[in-house]
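[Q] Does anyone have a clean structure-token version of this?
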Amino acid sequence: MKPILILLSLTLIFGCSSSNNIIESQTKKAETPNIYHCQVIHKQFQSKGGKMISISELYLRCSVQDYFIKICESNYTKAELMKYVNTGISAEIEIRDGLWDNCSSNLAEVQSRTGSYIIIKSIKE
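[A] Here you go.
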């Protein structure tokens, strides 16, 4: 009976100490900025119906994923980002999910593309 109590006590002690490490690890991770090394690229605009239009948009190519850059929520204008097209950058970004084309609070008037997109907070030179 005593070995079972000792084993149970040790399990509780070590179980509690490891959960504290997990919480500390998650807190530290949240404090560090999301800096990614990616490439700014142009893509031709494609409507919901699949039609290609002569307007090009900026995307951030990170590894194998291309993310739409939502300019109106980013800290950079399209003109500022154009100088980085087809070059690698290190940027602090935030990945969000929502409407791509809507930059106003009136959701009734916009039929927008939806999904994951990126906002660029800062570019590390």
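[Q] Thanks! Anything notable?
[A] Residues 2-31 form the longest helix (30 residues).
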